[in-house]
Please model this.
Amino acid sequence: MKRFDFVQPASVAEALQVWHPGAVWLGGGTNLLDLMKGGVMLPDTVIDINRLADLRGITTLDDGSLRIGALVSNAELADDTGFAHDFPMVAEALLSGASGQLRNAATVAGNLMQRTRCAYFQDTTAACNRREPGTGCDARGGVDSHTAVLGFGDACITTHPSDFCVPLAALDAVVEVQGPDGAREVALRDFHLLPGETPERETALQPGEIIVALRLPADAKGFAAHARYLKVRDRTSYAFATTSAAAALRVEGGVIAEARLSLGAIAAKPWRVTEAEALLVGHAPDAAPFDQAAARALDGAVPSNDNGWKIALARRTAIRALELAAAGTPERMPALPASPFADQNGDHAHV
Amino acid sequence: MSLSISLTLNGVVRDIVLDDPRVTLLDLLRERLALPGTKKGCDRGQCGACTVLLNGKRMNACLTLAATLDGATVTTIEGLADGDALHPVQTAFLENDGFQCGYCTPGQIMSAVGLIAEGRAGDDPERIREGMSGNICRCAAYHGITRAVQEATRRMAAAERGDAA
Amino acid sequence: MSDTMTPQRYGSNAGQPLTRRDGLAKVTGTATFAADNTPEGLLYAVYVPAAIARGRVVHLNVEAATAVAGVTHVMTPQNRPPLQGDPEAKPNGFSFIVDVLQNDGVRYAGQPIALVVGETLEAATEGARLLAPRYEVADSETTLAGQGGEAVEPGAFGRPGGAEHGDVPAGHAAAVSAIDVVYETPAQYHNAMETHAVVAAWDGDRLHLDLPSQALSLSCASYAYFFGIPADNVTIRCPYIGGGFGSKAFPTGPQVLAILAARTAGRPVKLMLTRAQMFGPVGHRGATRQRLRLGIDGGAALTVLDHEGTAATSRFDDFIEPAANASQGLYAAEALRSAHRAVRLDVGTPGPMRAPGEASGSAALECAMDEMALLAGLDPLKFRLRNYAEVEPGTGKPYSSKALRACYAEGAKRFGWADRPMEPGRMRDARGLLTGWGMGTALFGCPMFEAEATATLRADGSALVETSAIDMGQGAWTALAQIAADSLGLPMDRVEFRAGHSSLPNAGIAGGSGHTATAGGALHAAGRDAIRKLGEIAAADPDSPLHGSGNADFTARDGRLYVAGDDSRSEDFAAILSRAGAVDLTGAGSASRPAADAEAHAMNSHGAVFAEVKVDPDLCQVRVTRLVGAFAAGRIINPRLTESQLMGGMIWGISFALHEEAKHDPRSGRIMNADLAGYHVPVNADVRGLEVLTIHEDDPYVNALGIKGVGEIGVTGTVGAIANAIWHATGKRARRFPIRIEDLLD
Model:
């Protein structure tokens, strides 16, 4: 690790003041420390924001939306009974990620800010436009499987690794940001950027800005009875997604009144296609509309490297997530959250 | 630049002057405080061997900067037993052969203590397996680990109810 | 805390499921592994791994590294002090050529190219980063694909011979039905949880090492070779090893460099490999491509079993995974051929990794057997029974013991194999998951090495037993003590056992599943020797009830010596020794297998593994939901630890079948998943429904104690069982390991 200055501001204002190019915010540190140890990030100053009480807490606002402080840990959020009840697929996504230890440390804001797990980004001797603009993309033609089938370009073919962000995108979460020029809000769907020609620009955050909170709108609770996250992976737990999907339905009189569908691990951001959701509305929740919606969600998908199989898998993941959502949110969090083997111990879904 | 932190380590308040902000909690314990019970398996949050309790919660010590810990409470494997009386999780690991080489064991045990405190898994083996999946055991003593956590959970619950056998 | 589950029966400590004697230290964090030592004045060493697979280092920014506060020394090929032993030669036959900055060349990614030493780990780590090597890159090859390789000239360690029995062309010609299939296995890395480490301290020309080693005496000799000192000048302290699996049996380049740095600095030096560094200079299981040609006659008897293995090795040393040899000694084919080819690649030298050869060979063989069974129209178990070998195929030697039939029967019964439909894709569970059942035969040899031990009866009647045995998790601290206690007729709590230190009598190698048999044999012989000597003293002592028993045999139980067959004549050890002047009485023993014994019988552990998998029909994610293994491995010294070892091996089988694969980028030659996030091994949630049965076997031929060994056999059979179960679930036959989601998608 490169030697750095370590500062612990006492307020958000002070934190914004001490920030300068080359400084980083330290929250849970689970991704930052890893990248610093690998030499991928070489900050000259680490600003420890963990003492900022303003960034903590889970609050219901007057309009019924839920405000989650940037430093709320993944575990704290998933274990919040009210949260898990109102936003079950978000809790399920959180609990399907990383490990118990990491979820205790990792924060809401850090999850949004986590960087790609692409092996060529992690390997400082490889060419990577995201890490070092202009060097190229060794992931093209490489052996890493965290590659995209949608929204990628010549400059970068990687994916966003988050589970959490996938249902957040589906539920129209909003990111509250503060910076030198004051406060602003960014829709989560617009928060992560596709690589285009500037893969080094990963989020809508401007230099010196800090995430202070995340907000879930009140109407997102309307999906609680039919909301699931499904994560396909090549180990039963403690693995990044191969493909994933968050599916949420509002069912009225046996007919889908409103639908949300967001896919993970196939692009540099959670992939949500509202046209696909629209195809579900007005139908009974069954195979034909699910197939159509899933196909529409993957419209335009093309392989990068030899990952063409991911397109089929992502489509099937979306269909299964919709089926699971239609079957109803389980009363209790499955033993293996978001796993295709989630209910092997006999947990029964209610409809 | 040196930093002073004060933390409660295995029940004892320790005032520590850090000459380097890069020191992780793991390296602080192992290389500077003569507490090598906490193990380094990957140093990158990928194996769980370094698991300790930080403010009562299980954490990877390898991804925690020591400089952030002023005022924190840390419990390591060395501080788990009450004198000669083993913690129920330690006893259960011993009796269920929940380890072979023993290298990941401190992390497994601290993780199990954390998991039981979280109350997420109860004595459901499938939930225990999921809850313990952040601790890799290359000897693959998972069968014994799951049984040990299950048994310790039951014993601790029984003790809490006051009907310990 | 109780040391036993059931009351001890005197004189029969062996066979008891005792908990680990080192367990208390391990659950309290007081078990000391090499890198846990932090002597006064310690320096930290970190090495720089090459980022290319072939070429030359043309620049290292030594100035930048040296400028880091706390960095004390930067070692490069330019300033590396001389070593007395040539690193391009080998200290002994059981070692590999090491890379210790002998020049600026690079011959595999991950090779050490510089070493940075500092006052703190943080300083040395940052110094190593700042060396920022630049290279002259040469083209490299790191994958087996498309390479035919060269025939292997059998010879020393790492160069396996093949075998040919019967008329192979005739066997092919006689087949009425045949298969010709190719299976591929990837490079796998041991990844013990404890990375290779050393704490080295020099005292003049004496060298003290805290170092994990599976072979203490050989390691002393090897390190002595590099530093030009007598082997006796090297002391290795190694009470615990955090897993070895074959990778810690040999000296490695990084460890030699750290020792050299300690000599240069005149201070102790600690080096601990990072996880990423475990993918390079410390061995691995070489990738293989295996062609299997099997033929059967009209009665489904194998007319030929023809197994050719092509394995990757390095350009500069040999370890050719002896995969094809897994087909020797198992099925009664009329003609039998195993042959090996080697492909030289720009990779680090492979080495033995848990069940070397047997694991990859058995994976391919057991799948091929299922493919053949399908053509024969027979249930896979029936097909194996049809080809059951009553004597060793090819040689015709009798087996020393072989309870494989019982393994098949008991395992199948426990698993419920009889209900298996022949056709694939017929079973679904209540949730609609495809369910498949598969099986495989497990086989592993039971070699013995050479070991020595001493047993000292103390004046108070207790004993001290000593041998430099290594506990890397298999349970030596416990199982060997059980053997020693029995040999002395003492309860466990009266026996102090010293091991894990090079100054003790040489216990040989902890490997090949032979440590308990070999070191245990030496301890047993030493105990018997001590008892014999005690008998001589008692017989000659007029005050002893045993006086005048002449050359009668003696037995020992619960600290008393008896005239064999006459329980009325006995005396406490302490009483005998007290009258003899309260002296300590030491017996010595050794163990190895006489060549004649090895020649007379075929000796193997056997087993049968039955697997159930669930496969999501659409998403193709796989989970192993049940594994039943029935094993016959001679005498079981400690059933509790044996079960753990066998289960560990079976989980390695899950790992082989579904997870492990080092992925080289063919352009750079680097392994792109060189960490535990990318190189998957099973986590707890991958393991459920595990059962082990041990089948009783009395083997009078393997060794005096009848021990065969259980460390590696669990891997064999299991990989094939899982792959066969996946076929049975899906109808898809994957011939490449690990079997991934994308291999099963339509």
